[in-house]
Amino acid sequence: MNNILVLPMLLPIIVGVLLIFLRTYGRIQAWISIAAMVVTAGISFYLLHTVQTDGIFRLDFGGWEPPFGILFVADSFAVLLVLTSSIVTAVCLSYALISTSKELQTMYFYPTVLFLAAGVNGSFLTGDLFNLFVCFEVMLLSSYVLLTLGNSKRQLREAIKYVSINIVSSWFFLVALAFLYGAVGTLNMAHVAERVAEVGQTPLLTTISIIFLTVFSLKAGLLLYFWLPGSYSSPPAVTSALFGALLTKVGIYALFRVFSLIFYHQPEITHTIIGIMAALTLIGGSLGAIAFNDLRSIAAYNVVIAVGFMLVGLAIATPAAIEGSIYYLIHDMVAKALLFLLVGTMITLSGTSKMAGMSGLMKNYPLLGWSFFIAMLSLAGIPPLSGFIGKVLISSAAIDSGSYVLLSLALLSSIFVLYSLLRVFKNCFWGATIVSKEEQLPLRRGVLLPCLALVFLTISIGLGTEGLSPYVTDAAETLLNPGIYIDAVLGIIQ
Amino acid sequence: MESLIIILVGVLTTVAIYLVLSKNVVRIILGTAILSHAVHLLILSMGGLKLGTVPLLGEEAETYVDALPQALILTAIVISFAVTAFVLVLAYRVHQELGTDNVGAMRGSDDE
To answer: Inter-chain contact A164–B47, Cβ cutoff 8 Å?
Structure first.
C-alpha cells in the first residue's frame, strides 16, 4: 500500500521520459502531461486522506529500514503542498496548451515541466537530507532549462546569473551536509533530529543550522533574493507562473522542515535571525514592488514579499503562526500562478510589458480585468479570498507573542502589495482605450480558462477554509511536535 | 591524512573562488567545477578516511571505511558533471547570441 507514496515523483518522471519521444506532437504532449499531473493530484488527495486516518506513513526504498537507506515520508504538511503544486502545475500546463508558441511546445517544454514537478514533489516528500539535495538538483536543472527555453537574449543573460547563484548555493548545501554528517553521523531527518535532541544543540550544530539557513534562504528568496526579480521576469508567462508558484516554495518548505524538526532548540539565535531576515525581505520586496514600471518586475517583487510574510510565521513559531503560514503557503502557490498568468496575458495582448504602454484594457477584455481584480484582492488578503485567513492567523499570533515590529511590517507589506497591484489595475485597465474595438487583438479562445480555474481555486480556498482546516491543523501539529514525525519514521514498521 | 585532505580542500576552494570571481564565463564555469570537487573531498574526509581499506563490511571485517560518504559523493559528482555540461552549453549559446563572454558586458537594458 505504501508504494503509492513514490508515485507523485515517479509518475511525472516516467511520463516525461515518454514525452521526449513525442517531441513533434505539441498537443498530444500537452494533453498527456496535463493528465499525468491530474492523476498525481488525485493520488496526493488520496494520500492526504490516508494520512488523516492512519497517521504519518513512510516508504523505505529497497526495504532498508531507517535510519539506513533513504525513504519518503508522507505527513500532512508535505502532502498538502504536493497536492497544491500538482494542481497548479496542471493548470499552468493547460495555459501552455492554449497559448504557447509552437516553437516552445516542440522544444521539450512539457517533459521539462514534468521533471520540474517531479523534483518539487520529491523535495516535499523525502525524509533524507541528501535526498533533498538530489531532488533540489532535479528541480533546479529543469528550471535552468525552462529559463533558457524561449528566444530572447534577456533570458540567456539572466540564466547565466541564475545558474551561477544556484551552483554556489548547492555548494553551500553540500558543505552543510558534510559538516552535519561529520557532527552527527547520519542524514536521515528524523534520526538527525533525534540525535540533536539527545546531545543538545551545541554551538557547532547551531553554526551548521545557519549554513542550512543560508542555503535555503538563497533558494527561497529570503533576504538573498537579488537573483529573483531578473530570472522570474524574463521567461514566458507559463514558465514565470511555474517559477513563482513552485520554486521558492520548496525553499520555504525546507526552512520549515529543518527549523521545526531538527534545529529548534536555540530559537533565540536561529529564529531571531529568521525574523530579522523576514523583516528585511518584507521591506526590500515592498520597495521593489512599487519602484518598477515593468509589470513582470512588479509581479516578481510580489513573490519576494510573500516569502517574507510566510517566514514571519516561522520566526514566531506558535501553533497559530505555523498554521497561518501553511494556509498562506497554499494560497500563495495558487495566487502567484494566477498573477503571473494574468500579467503574461496582458503583455501578450498589449505587446509591451511597461505600464505606460497599456491603458483601458477593461473596455476590451472585462473578464481579464475582473480576474486581475480578484487576484489583487486575494494577494492583499481581503476576505473572503484565500490570502485572508493566513494573514489573520499570523497577525494574531504576532500580537500574542508581542512581536509588534514583525506585525507592523507584515501588515504594511500587505498595503504595499495592494498599492503596487492597484497601480497596475488603475493604469492598465482603466483610462482611455488606446486600441479601438476593431483593432484589438482577439483574446484567444480559452486563454482565460486556466486563469478562471485559479480564480475559482482562490475563492474556494477562502470560502472552504472550514474543510481545509483539519489538514492544516494536523500539519501544524506535526511541525510543532517533532516527536510525532520521529516516531513515525524510526518507530516499528506498520 | 584527514588534515592533508582538509588543506587540499582549502586550496581547491581558494582557487575556485578566485576563478568564480573573475569576469570571464569560462573561468567561472571552471571555478564552479573545482568548487564542487572541493566539497566532494570535504564530504569524504568528514566520513573519516582510513588507509588501505575498502568500504565493504564482511562478516569478520577488522577494518572498513564508511561507505555512505562514498555513495553520497558518487551522486554529487554525477550531478556536478551534469550541471557543468549544461552550463558549458549555456555559455556557448550566450556567446553566440550576445557575442560576449564577459559577465560585465551582460548587464544590458530591459528593452529587447
So the answer is: no
